[in-house]
Amino acid sequence: MIEKQTGKQIKYLRTDNGLEFCSDEFNKLCKSEGIVRHLTVRHTPQQNGVAERMNRTIMEKVRCMLSNANLPKSFWAEAASTACFSINRSPSVAIEKKTPQEVWSGNPANYSDLKIFGCPAYAHVNNGKLEPRSIKCVFLGYKAGVKGYKLWCPENRKVVISRDVVLMKLLCFLTYLLKTVPIKKIKSRTKREIKPPKKYAEADLVAYALNVAEDIDANQEPSNYSEAISCEDSEKWMFAMQEEMESLHKNKTWDLVKLPKARLVAKGYSQVPGVDFTDVFSPVVKHSSIRALLGIVAMHDLELEQLDVKTAFLHGELEEDIYMQQPEGFTVSEKEDYVCLLKKSLYGLKQSPRQWYKRFDSFMTSHDFKRSSFDSCVYFKKNNNGSFVYLLLYVDDMLIAAKDKGEIRKVKAQLSEEFEMKDLGPAKKILGMEILRDRKTSKLYLSQKGYIEKLLCRFNMRSAKPVSTPLAAHFRLSSTLSPQSDDEIEYMSHVPYSSAVGSLMYAMVCSRPDLSYAVSAVSRYMANPGKEHWKAVQWILRYLRGTIDVCLQFGRTEDGVIGYVDADFAGDLDRRRSLTGYVFTIGGCAISWKATLQTTVALSTTEAEYMAITEACKEAIG
C-alpha cells in the first residue's frame, strides 16, 4: 500500500520478534520484495523507539476511551482503531503543526465526522409501519473505505455499519457523571444570609493591569490648562475645552455663588472623607462577563451593538455641598471672586463614579431590566416572545445584545431620552479588545493584536526571536535570584520590570489565558526582581511576538459551561505553596481563568487538589 500510494519502495523493516513477524510466509514475502529485515532484542523496546512510543500513546488513549464509554476490554481493537483515526487528524509539532493526514494526502483533515467513542447512537432500520424506525447502538468508530459509522448493537450483539445515524454526544458525558457522582440527600439546616465573597486581591490586580495598559495606549497629553494652550495642538485643545464647558452648562452642573465663610474650595485630590464624600465604590463589569456575553452572542447568533455615554459623570446627583474654583481660562467676567456650587458630579470627584452608577442603575431597573446577582453591571430583560436583551456597562461604555435589532433600537431610544448617547453601531472594540465577527461562519473573535504590538514596541521586543512556550522549563524562579550586589541593584533600577509585568497582566486578564501561569510566576517578584526574573519577562514577550495573532474564538456550538481545574503541589520554591489553575468555557471558548498560589501550604497532593477545586467552585457559583 505504501509503495502504491507514495511511489517509494520499502528497503528496511524493523520489527520485534512477534510470531506474526517471524512466520515463514512473512519472511518469504520480504525476501521476494527485497526488503531487509531488522529484528529487535527481546525486552528492548528502545531499539524501535518511534513505533513503541506510538504504541504506548495509542494504548493510553484506548484505556481512556474504554473507561469513559464504560465498555468492556473486548472492544480494545475498535478503540485502538478510533484512536489511530483521531491521531492521524491531530496537529503534530514534528511536522510543523500539520496533521499526518494532511502530510500524507496533501489535503486538510476533515473534522465534520468526528464523534465521541462509546456515545449512544440510533441507527436507522427498515421496519414495518408500526415498528420503531431506529435501533439503539453504541458508536465504535469509523469503517475504512466506507462513508459510514461502525456501531455495536447490544440487542443482537452484532457490529452494524450505517450512514443514517443520530449520535447523542452530550448524553454520553451526562450519563457518566450520573453514574460516578452519587447524589445523597442532604440534611437541612438553619438558613443564613449568603453574601458574595470579597475579591480584593483579584480586583486590585485587574486595576493595576488596566492602569499600566492605559499608559501604553495614552499619548503625552497635557496635564493642565497652561500646557494645553502652549502645546502644538493648542487649537484642538481649546475646541475640546469649549465643547466640554458647553456640556457642563447644558447639564447645569453648578451655580456661581459667593464662597461661604470658613469653607475651603475643594479639588478632587483635596477632598476630606466624611465631609466632601462618604461612599466612593462603583462597580464595573467583569471581563469574564464580557466574554460570557460574547459566547452567548456567538452561540445564539445575536445582534451586538455598542453605545457610549457622553460626559457620563455629569449625570450623577451629588449628596454633599461641594464648592469648586471656576475653571482656568473660563472665569465669568465681573464674578471672578465667585465659586461654583456643584449640583452634579464632576470628573475628578471621588464620588462621581458611584453617583453616575446609582443614576444609571435606577434608570435601568425602572425600565423592567433586572440586575445580575453575580455582576452588578450586567442587566437583562425577558421579552414577551421569550428572547432576552442583555446590556453590559463599563463606566460609560455599553454593549447591548438581542436577537432582534428592533429591540436594540428600542433600548437605545430609551437611553437617549435620559442621557446624551453616542451610537457606535456594531460592537468593534471594548476596553482595548477588538471584536471581530464572521456571520457566514458563525464565528466571533476577541483579539488584542493592536495592544500587543504597542506592548512589544514599548519594551523593544518587536524584532525579538519568537518562542513557542509562555515560560520555559529552565526558569526556576525564586527570591534567591533577587539582586545581591550593588551592581545588580543598580542595573535592575533601570529595568521597567513592574510596567512590563503589568502590561502582560492586562493581556492575560482580557484575552490570553495561555499567559496565566507565566504572569503569575513573574508577578511574585515585583518588589525586588533580579536579572533572571527579567529574562523570564522577556521570554514571555518573545512568546507574544510569535503568537500575536492568537485570539479567543467563540462559535455556534451547543456546549454549555464546562470547568477544568488542576493543582501543582508545592511548586513555589520560596514557601512551597501549591498553585491553583482553572478555566471555564462556554461553547468551547474560555471565558474565565486563573492561575495563582494557594494561600495555605498544602500538606499533600490531595489537599492541594481540594483547595484548587474549592477556588474553582467559588468562581463557578459567582
UniProtKB/TrEMBL annotation:
Q: Which GO terms describe its molecular function?
A: hydrolase activity; metal ion binding; nucleic acid binding
- Determine if ATP-binding is one of this entry's keywords: no
Pfam families documented for this protein? RVT_2, SH3_retrovirus
Q: Name one GO biological process term.
A: DNA integration
InterPro entries in the cross-refs = DNA/RNA_pol_sf, Integrase_cat-core, Retrotran_Ty1/copia-like, RNaseH-like_sf, RNaseH_sf, RVT_2, SH3_retrovirus
Asked if NADP is a keyword of the record, the answer is no
Query: Superkingdom of the source?
Result: Eukaryota
Start and end residues of each Integrase catalytic domain: 1-108
Q: State the protein's name.
A: Integrase catalytic domain-containing protein
